[in-house]
Amino acid sequence: MNKCLLCDQTIAAVADLNMIFSFRSIVMPVICSNCTQSFVSLTNQKTCLDCGRLLKQVDVCSDCHYWRQHGHQFSNKALYEYNPAMKEYMSRYKFIGDYRLRQVFRNELSQVIRASRKVIIPIPVSVDTIKHRGFNQVTGWFKKVNYYDVLMPIKKKKIIAQSEKNRQQRLQTPQPFQIIASAQSVILNQDVLIVDDVYTTGTTIRHAANLIQAAGARSVSGLTLCR
Amino acid sequence: MIKTLSDLYGRQVSQHQIKSNLLNNNALCKRQAIQKNRHRWRCQRCNSLVYQTLPNGQYYCHSCIQLGRLTTTDQLVSLPEPNMFHDLTKKCEWQGKLTSQQEQAAQEVLLSIQSKNSRLLWAVTGAGKTEMLFPGLTWALTNQLRVGIVSPRIDVILELAPRLQSAFPQQSFIALYGDTAASYQYTQLVLATVHQLYRFYHAFDVLIVDEVDVFPLAGNEQLHFALSQAAKDKCAQIFLTATPSPALIQKVQRQQLAVSYLPRRFHGYPLPTITFIKTAKWRQKLQQYQLPKRLVKEIKRLMQIKRPFLLFVPHVKDLSDVKQALEKLHFVDKYATVHATDKNRAIKVQQMRNHELNFLVTTTILERGVTFAGIDVLVLGADDEVFSTAALVQMAGRVGRKKSRPTGQVLFFGAHLVTNIRRANAQIKMMNRRAHPVE
User: What's the N-to-C CA distance of chain B in angstroms?
Assistant: First the structure.
C-alpha cells in the first residue's frame, strides 16, 4: 500500500483489468483523492490569454491589460490556481525542501512540456538558494524533458527573495537575469517556452522573456504550475 | 534562532538555528545529523532510515522534515544538561488528601523517582492520576532534577498546565506544543507534547508520560526513539495509563517494568461494565438514515428522564448520517455533533457541561480527558475496527466519574460481539475484581 505524500493517508490501489490490458505502464497515484481535489485545475477553463488566471467574462485581465498598454505582450499558461492548498504545497516543497514532493505534479507538468515541442528554458535559482535548498524547484518537476540553462541570475550583494516583497516592490524589480553567451545559439530562431513555478505579478517571467526575445528567439511563451 | 547558550542545555538543534557567534564554543557537542551505520543512513533525530536524495547527492530525512530539514551536511548541536536550578525551596500547595490506595501508589512512584527506575502506573479511568504524582514531583523538584511531563495529546497538556500551576505556584515551567517552540526558555519543569521531544537530547532525570497508549505515540517507533533520547541515561520514566498496550503488559509480565495498580476510583465505586446489544445491519440502516430500534428506544428513554449522554460513532462521516436520522425522528431535545477538526469543539463541550445540550454525537476525540457529570454512554457501531480495546475501555470510563452519580450505564450497539469488545469488558471486570476482592 502506498501512502499519500501530502496527508499520509493510505491510497486504495486502483488497478483494474482495463489498465492491465491497455499494456501501458501503470501510473499509481502519489496523492490521495482528497488532496487531488483540493487543487483547482485551470486546464480547459476560460483563463486570461496573457497570464493564465481564471476569468469569467473578458479575455484579458486588468493587470495584463496594463502590461499591454506599456508594450509588454506575453502569453502564459498555468496549470493550477494558487489557492491555499497550493500555497501549503509550495511551502513544503520549496521552503522546507521536501524534494520527494516533486512527484506530485511531475508527470502532468512534464507531459504538457513535452507536448509543446518547444525549446525549454527553466527559470534558474540563485547560487545561494541552490546551496541551501539543494535543488531547483522547477527542474525537479522535469521528467524526460530536454532543457537548456540559458539564463543565469545576476549576482547582487544583497538579494531579497521575490516571495518576501510586496506587489509594488516586485513590479519594480530590475532585470535579475543575464544570458549565458555560449548558450545563445540554442534559442536563435526557435520557439521558446519558459517554465516557472508561480506567476504572481509576472515580473520575473516577463524579464526573462524580454531577454530571450532580444537574443533572437522566434517566439517566447510561458508555462507556470500555478497562477 | 537561538541566541543564548542556556537555551541549548539538553536540547538538540541544527547548526542553522544557532547564532553563528555561539557555534565556536568548545563545550558544544556536535553530531552529524545523518549518519551511516552498516551501509545504511539513519537520521539521528528520529532514527528512521534515510533514503531520499537531493540532486547534489546529499541525503535528507523526510520523516521529521516538519521540524526543519536535516541533510548529510547538517550537524545537531547540543549542550550537556547541567541541572543548574536555583531556588529549590518550593512546596506542593495542593490541599487535597489522597485515599490510602492512592497514597500507596504515590509512594511507589516516589521510590521509582528516587532510585531512577521506570514504572507503569496502571490506574483506572477517573482514579486521580495527576494528584498521585505530586509527592514524587515535589521530591524531584527540590533535588535539582529536571522533570518532563509529556503526552501525545495536546488536550492533556492544556488541562495539566493550570493544575500544576496551582499545585506549584512558585515553580516556573514552560508548556511546549504545536508552534510555541519559538518562545522556548530553560526551565526545570517542562510540559510538552511528545513531538516536542525531538528537540531534546539527554535532558530529563524524570520523564512522565501521560496516556502512553494513545495515537500518535502508540506503535510509533520514531516517537519512542525521541522519548528515549530526551531522557538521560539514568532516568526515571513513569508511564501513566488506564489501558496499557499489550507490549507494555508483556514488559510487566516479564518483570522488566515495575507496576502500580490503582483499580479503584477515588469515590470507591466499581467501574460500570459494558452491556452489548446486538443490532444487525446497523451500517446499512444508517446509510438509509435509520437508527436501530433499540437505540432509538434508549435515546427516548434517556430524554424522558432528562439524563445527559454521549453517543459515539466510529467515523467523522457517520456524524452527518446520524444527524439526518435524528432529524427524521423529530426530537425536540438539543444536541450537537463534534469531531476532531470541528472549530466549535470547545464551545460545544462547554455547552454540554452547562447542560445547554442534552447530548453530544461524537467520534473518539471525546474518549478521554473529558469529564461530564452524571452521563451515560451509548456507542453505535462498537464493532467497527477503528475502536481498539483501549478506546472502548476509555469510552466506558466516561461514565460515573463524579461522586454525585458514581454509576451509570454503558451500552454498546454493534452487529457482532467482536474480540475488542470482549477484551474491553474483561479488562474492566479484571480491574473491578482487583479493587473489590471477594472476601
Answer: 63
